[in-house]
Amino acid sequence: MRTGPAHCKCPQCGSVRSLPLFWGYPGDLAQEAGRQGLIAFGGCMIDDAHLNRKCCDCSHRWEDPDAPVFDWSTVKPVRPWSALWRRLRALWQAR
């Protein structure tokens, strides 16, 4: 899990381990970013969209106006066939 810069310090516990919050229904790229530990999900209902950070230690959510915008180019694409291949291989070996 990659965490944010030091200025994104949690106001509740003081941890510098925080992630950007993603609001709304996650598409494929957002789901992959979540699997890679690059973002945290805020929820599909965008009622607290002003909150943009989540602490990795205490789960506190807060608004950090100085937080950097998430760079979507950091998400490594997954080859769609690799996950299917792993599942098929596991099924084959289990029989």
UniProtKB/TrEMBL annotation:
Q: Which domain of life is it from?
A: Bacteria
Kindly provide the name given to this protein in its UniProt entry.
Uncharacterized protein
